[in-house]
Design brief:
EC 2.7.13.3; Beta-Lactamase; five-stranded antiparallel sheet; transferase; 7 domains; alpha+beta; about 40% helix
């Protein structure tokens, strides 16, 4: 196998060869064009000598002689350069001729013109033969591979591809060194298996399969086991393939047998599949095969001591010296003694199985799946372990559990917020009705105002709950972070006070993001206030922006940020930091480390919900005693996003008494329905009340009934708001509708997308909000 230096030298020679061919072609063409110019100059000089043209003739003579000398001189110089470059070309050809890697040159049709000694030794003399014929017995379907590579090289100058052959892995590279000539180089990689032996002499059954399930190669051991040369996976396996490290049923001449299934990802979306028959008498592969296999294998004694591990397993477990550690010294996380597990498998008290365990002593959490099987070697019982990396699987599992947890808490918070919004609508609404009957000089007026103001404060708290559950109504727009922070700087300075130093830094050329500006400002204020409270003795708070470009997915804090362009807002402080045991709970609602009465525990949960609902990510890093850093990551929005058609939000207008308009009010909460009905009747509207959608449809069954507007709750027992409205519109298509809800408008968009002339009124709403919305709909 060539080392990296040998590969680079070989590719460098090929590139030089190609560049030289282009230079020679250019020199040759230029030389051919210069000689006619020299002849033309000589002709002009000859005519000037025989024609008596006076001064004109003398000038023509001088010009002709000059042109002839210049052209011929340049042609001679170019010819000398051409000769020198031909010598260099011959030397390069000699170098390629002694290259130990097979090299060919072909024309556009793939006919071999030149091949070096290594190619002749490997494939025989192929001059004037097709390169496809030379490689036909070397790997599967060479015509497709050669056509694909030559097409790419014709466009881009060079191309290469890794292929699988009976001898192992190959790298086939091609360079276009003239308009119609290509130079091919065939490198062989013998890393798997090692010791210079090919996969065909490996005693362990193996095959190479592509993404479509087509078998590209199978070794002699697998062909002996199955009694055939399989072409597809269904000719080898009974049923679908399991996860690596599990058992699989293999078809053989003597019926199906069980085998361990291990998989190694190869180049070009190919996979190497290794089978380890579970019949004890069939586990007789030589120790050198065991050592060189590209899967981690270990053998344990019945008491749990490690007796043997191959190279890859030693690397996985971090073993560098002699010794026979216990399995419990290497792994943890089963919930019982690992040595007992090995003993149960060795004595057949427990069937073979797989467990995901944590590797001890690793700097970062690393998880591996151990698949155990009882085997017998030389009359001694051993437990064979196939060790496969399960770190990514555990990370995905942790992300899933975290998302399920946050979703469950979010659903709970959203449901609580919905119920509170109904209560607050009734409280603030009836308070509005009482305020209509009291003048400002009335002693009870101030008490009613206090009730109204506290109801509004409760409504703001509910909005924070909806923010965490991502069910609040956002008004996203394209915003420039530099402008937002510049506008907020004065306010933030007032928030942090004189004992704190606020440092705001803008990244140049940062693209716009799409978010609700008001909610984003709320998030930033909350983070800055938290940073201030973490430093009672004073300190520095940093707010900065940064551009971030991800070429690969970013795995962080149980979240995956896909590749793309992002804007990062970073809020840092130099306070005491967050205790490690609290880091996993900081975004949960009602969790706070502040003293009783100093915080609701909803600030960070609200920030989490707003950022997530805006398509962003929020991360936190904290070191006790050094400070905390929050990062908000938003995708760059380079072009306006056409979102779902939003429902019309009624605008506030001057209130007036209606004429004979009739409103059908559908609301399952009696206090809310009572307030809304009274408020509409006070404004002169006729009101028909219904407790649910079915009740509304029963009343609308009367064709003589006139209704000018539907006002309906969304979430109700039985039929929801959009469902009954769609049925009612079948006979009354022109009647507009206002949907009321304690949830966000975005949560209703899918159900209302097919309902025209619909408006949205969020709860809690006041008397003026309701009547203004009704009047706006009826006036359209």
């Amino acid at each position: 196998m060539f080392g990296q230096m040998g590969q680079e030298q070989g590719h460098g020679m090929v590139r030089t060869f190609g560049h030289l061919a282009e230079i020679l072609g250019a020199i040759d063409g230029l030389s051919r064009r210069l000689w006619p110019l020299a002849l033309l100059g000589a002709l002009i000089a000859g005519i000037a000598l025989v024609q008596p043209w006076g001064r004109t003739g003398a000038a023509a003579l001088l010009a002709g002689i000059t042109l002839a000398f210049l052209a011929s001189g340049l042609a001679i110089l170019l010819g000398l350069n051409k000769h020198r470059d031909r010598v260099l070309r011959r030397q390069l050809t000699e170098i390629l001729g002694h290259d130990v890697t097979p090299c060919f040159s072909t024309d556009m049709a793939g006919i071999v013109g030149f091949q070096n000694a290594a190619a002749r030794k490997r494939f025989g003399t192929q001059r004037d033969e097709s390169l496809i014929n030379a490689l036909h017995d070397y790997f599967a379907n060479p015509s497709a591979v050669l056509f694909r590579l030559q097409s790419r090289a014709d466009l881009m100058g060079s191309a290469r591809e890794d292929v699988t052959s009976q001898k192992g892995q190959l790298r086939l590279s091609v360079h276009r060194f003239s308009p119609e000539r290509f130079l091919w180089r065939l490198e062989e990689f013998s890393d798997r298996p090692s010791n210079g032996r090919g996969a065909d002499v490996l005693s362990l059954p193996m095959l190479v399969v592509n993404r479509s399930g087509v078998i590209l190669f199978s070794n002699e051991a697998l062909r002996r086991l199955t009694g055939t040369r399989p072409r597809s996976l269904d000719q080898v396996f009974q049923g679908p393939l399991p996860q690596p490290g599990h058992e699989v049923s293999v078809k053989t001449n003597n019926g199906a047998i069980r085998a361990f299934f291990a998989q190694v990802d190869g180049p070009g979306e190919r996979h190497e599949v290794y089978l380890m028959p579970l019949t004890e008498r069939e586990f007789d592969q030589p120790s050198d095969d065991f050592e060189s296999l590209p899967i981690a294998l270990a053998k344990f004694s019945p008491d749990g001591h490690l007796r043997q591990a191959n190279r890859l397993a030693r690397e996985v477990m971090g073993l560098t010296g002699p010794g026979e550690p216990l399995v419990s010294d290497l792994f943890e996380g089963l919930g019982r003694s690992l040595s007992d597990w090995v003993a149960d498998v060795a004595t057949a008290r427990r069937p073979s199985g797989a467990e995901v365990l944590r590797l001890r002593g690793a700097e970062e959490d690393r998880f591996f799946q151990l698949s155990l099987r009882r085997i017998v070697e030389d009359g001694r019982v051993r437990v064979l372990a196939i060790i496969t990396d399960a770190t990514d699987l555990k990370r995905l599992e942790a992300q899933f559990h975290q998302s399920q947890k946050m979703q469950a808490v979010g659903e709970l918070a959203g449901g609580v917020a919905h119920d509170f919004n109904n209560l607050l609508t009734a409280i603030s609404g009836h308070c509005d009705l009482l305020l209509l009957r009291h003048d400002q000089d009335d002693p009870e007026y101030a008490d009613l105002q206090q009730i109204h103001q506290n109801a509004n404060r409760a409504a703001a708290l509910v909005r924070q709950l909806l923010g965490f559950s991502r069910k609040q109504t956002l008004r996203p727009e394209r915003i420039d972070l530099a402008d937002v922070l510049s506008e907020m700087t004065h306010l933030l300075n007032r928030l942090v006070g004189e004992r704190m130093r606020l440092r705001v830094t803008h990244a140049p050329g940062l693209g716009p993001i799409r978010a609700d500006k008001r909610q984003l400002e709320q998030v930033l204020m909350n983070l800055v206030v938290n940073a201030r409270d973490a430093m009672p003795g004073g300190g520095t708070i940093g707010v900065e922006t940064q551009a971030l470009t991800l070429r690969e997915p970013l795995e962080r804090d149980r979240a995956t940020v896909p590749p793309g362009h992002y804007a990062v807002i970073r809020v840092t402080d130099t306070g005491d930091g967050i205790a490690p045991e609290n880091m996993s709970k900081i975004f949960e609602p009602f969790f706070t480390t502040k003293k009783i009465g100093e915080g609701t525990g909803l600030g960070l949960s609200m920030a989490y919900g707003i950022v997530k609902q805006s398509g962003g990510y929020i991360f936190c890093d904290s070191v006790p005693g050094q400070g905390t850093r929050f990062e908000l990551v938003f995708p760059i929005n380079d072009s306006p996003v056409e979102g779902t058609k939003a429902l019309t939000r009624p605008s506030a207008q001057r209130l007036s008494r209606s004429g004979e308009n009739v409103v059908m009010l559908v609301e399952d909460e009696a206090p809310v329905r009572a307030f809304a009905a009274r408020a509409l009747r006070l404004r002169g509207y006729g009101v028909l009340e219904a407790v649910d959608g079915e009740d509304a449809l029963r009343q609308l069954a009367d064709p003589q009934l006139t209704v000018d507007l539907f006002v309906s709750d969304v979430v109700m027992p039985g039929m929801d708001g959009p469902a009954w409205v769609r049925q009612a519109r079948a006979n009354r298509p022109q009647v507009p509708v206002i949907f009321m809800s304690g949830y966000a408008e975005e949560g209703l968009a899918e159900g209302q997308a097919r309902i025209d002339n619909a408006s949205f009124l969020p709860k809690p709403f006041s008397l003026n909000d309701l009547t203004a919305a009704v009047q706006a709909c009826l006036s359209r």
